[in-house]
Amino acid sequence: MLFASSIALLLASTAVHTASAACPHMLSRRDARVLPQGHPAVDGSIFARDNAQGVQGSVDLNSLEKDLTKLFTTSQPFWPHDFDSYGPFFIRLAWHCNGSYRVSDGRGGCDGGRIRFAPELTWADNANLDKALKLLEPVKAKYGAALSWGDLISFTGTTAIKSMGGPVLGFCGGRKDDQNGDASLPLGPSAQQQAIHECPINGECTAPLGPTTIGLIYVNPAGHMGVPNPVGSVPDIRSTFKNMGMDDRETVALIGGGHAFGKTHGACKLGPGKCGSGPDKGIGRNAFTSGFEGQWTGTPTRWTNDYYVNLLKYNWTLFEGPGGNPQWKPAATDKLDADDAHVRMLTADVALLHDPVYLKLVKEYAADVKSLENDFARSWYKLVSRDVGPATRCQGSRVPPPQPFQNPLPAPPAKLANFDAVRADLAKILTGKAAIPGDGALGQYYGALFVELAWRSAATFRITDHFGGANGARIRLSPEKDYADNVGMDKVLEVLSAVKSKYPDGLSWADLIVLAGEVALEHAGSKPLHFIGGRVDAVDGENPAPRTYYSNATVAARDTMQVMGFTPAHYVALAARLRSPSQQARLGLGAKTYTSHVDAFSNDYFKILLQNHWVPTDVVSKTGAKQYKSDGYGEPRFVTDADLALIWDPEFRSFVEKFAQDGQLLQTVFVEGWSALMKADLVGHNDLAM
Ligand code: HEM
């Protein structure tokens, strides 16, 4: 359950049940440690954490590395290693655990360690990775609850690269394990995934889904829809890695850096477990995983740039591999280097020669191993750390300096402004006692607009990958300030600018925006909101883009709730925030009629939703919301499909009914939800943390 509070208990029967069905992350409160912003978490060779899901204590990464290095070279009869090392196998495990991450909604990734469960473990691409997990069991048992599976898998892959001479930037620890694989259901195949975004032809899936083929981490190795045409594979590679948040440079460095190691497995056409005979039937040299067979370089347990060298050196020729699949080998006329007798490529490898940007990078890496090392180390770290969130969430002794993908923020000021004084200034605006730039243009009462600004700023937060949120105040910057939903927010910032300039030191925009929203809510009669300051202003970086791909408003509302990390009760309660229809109309946000009393925090909104009959109009707002008009009772009112989703969805509706009946209950749940959201991105204060 999200909040340990009396009201959460009051709502328990519905909230707990539905939270678990909707998102396993919300089953228990998982506090992050209280850590100062802008500092890597813990010093020494130890990382530690404390949460309700049983990850406690600390892990000595040096000792863990030693144990793993021994594990890599100790072959186990149930799944013997290739070339005297499990290193490449574990790199594949870490890659597949992390490669499910998608930027669209921050879902996927290794945080949660869900590759241990269905649906991920049953994906075709993850064949035989159950063996890799089994090999890790003794290490997991040794470190127990102090080491999550997510951290173990990612650290093992990173250590494997290092153990074979590859470049490593560092390690960001701090993943927490899920209890089951449910949070991966939206990745597909599942009814949830179908609702969020359909993939009518598997193999041609598009964003927000990550891969082109559900069940693959990346692209079809045999080529687009299995057609071994390298040219056709290029768009699949580009879109899949883009959905994962990778640019061309990172893509080429990752594929060739990864395939510096190991081999593909497809010893014969009979399939898994059936190749060979005798004691090594189906294992070792008779293993069948992908159904392709071969290695990319002559030295598959040693870091080199030979993948790129080989791509350029040989004339790759299509043939049918022993597993019956299309593969590529050097032409018969090619003069092979001594250890290259078994080098093979997949269609998706050869594709890198068939795109001008990829080809340029292949040439660069073939000629300059240092450039590859720099790019691979960075890209691997990004691949395996992306879903942990900002660098401030990374724990352990090997955390490198914050990277651009982590959207780092400046250090907080040594001394914060006197927030009581700021409150007093904000109150003057709300009571009409302050001179306002451009006064009159937005109407008289600014409270509803302050609340809207704070909400818009904070509601970018995603529990799925911990990006977004009010900290950084990126709502002032492009592209966020230009999003359709943020129309007019620049004008609200202008109103606040007089207060901002009064406190040149110690008052960030991010704090001011949140505080203004809270002062306005309290002024309108909300229970106290217990403001926490210390946010800073970003100079660059982006919050996650709006998710505009939903098929209807109900799906959008339910999915947004999950991505933000809310229970249904809190999600519904937050919809009652103050909003002034006339001001919103003036800002170009479309006519909506939530309440007749914009300066009072009330449950009017829910009453209006329930007590009217709504008929669709032809009006679609700038943000794509369909407008509905009340029919029958009193003065006509207008709402959108996003509002009506709260009564169309039966579970949401049950909370709408409760709140319409009980204004006090609404107050309590609202304050919990609002407070949690406003500090969701403050390390150490996170009630929404997974
Ligand atoms: C193995 C395809 C990207 C690392 C494999 C296998 C296939 C494949 C088919 C063979 C699995 C088996 O039969 O055992 C691809 C494709 C990619 C891609 C199509 C993208 C276009 C990557 C990336 C990495 C990586 C980004 C890591 C950074 C590995 C490693 C192995 C492997 C280390 C060897 C595993 C072993 O020796 O057991 N890949 N891969 N691959 N892949 Fe990739």
TrEMBL record:
<dbReference type="InterPro" id="IPR000763">
    <property type="entry name" value="Catalase_peroxidase"/>
</dbReference>
<dbReference type="GO" id="GO:0070301">
    <property type="term" value="P:cellular response to hydrogen peroxide"/>
</dbReference>
<dbReference type="GO" id="GO:0005829">
    <property type="term" value="C:cytosol"/>
</dbReference>
<dbReference type="GO" id="GO:0020037">
    <property type="term" value="F:heme binding"/>
</dbReference>
<dbReference type="Pfam" id="PF00141">
    <property type="entry name" value="peroxidase"/>
</dbReference>
<keyword id="KW-0349">Heme</keyword>
<keyword id="KW-0376">Hydrogen peroxide</keyword>
<keyword id="KW-0560">Oxidoreductase</keyword>
<dbReference type="GO" id="GO:0046872">
    <property type="term" value="F:metal ion binding"/>
</dbReference>
<keyword id="KW-0479">Metal-binding</keyword>
<protein>
    <recommendedName>
        <fullName>Peroxidase</fullName>
        <ecNumber>1.11.1.-</ecNumber>
    </recommendedName>
</protein>
<keyword id="KW-0732">Signal</keyword>
<keyword id="KW-0575">Peroxidase</keyword>
<dbReference type="InterPro" id="IPR002016">
    <property type="entry name" value="Haem_peroxidase"/>
</dbReference>
<dbReference type="InterPro" id="IPR010255">
    <property type="entry name" value="Haem_peroxidase_sf"/>
</dbReference>
<dbReference type="GO" id="GO:0042744">
    <property type="term" value="P:hydrogen peroxide catabolic process"/>
</dbReference>
<dbReference type="GO" id="GO:0004096">
    <property type="term" value="F:catalase activity"/>
</dbReference>
<feature type="signal peptide">
    <location>
        <begin position="1"/>
        <end position="21"/>
    </location>
</feature>
<dbReference type="InterPro" id="IPR019793">
    <property type="entry name" value="Peroxidases_heam-ligand_BS"/>
</dbReference>
<keyword id="KW-0408">Iron</keyword>
<comment type="similarity">
    <text>Belongs to the peroxidase family.</text>
</comment>
<feature type="domain" description="Plant heme peroxidase family profile">
    <location>
        <begin position="97"/>
        <end position="396"/>
    </location>
</feature>
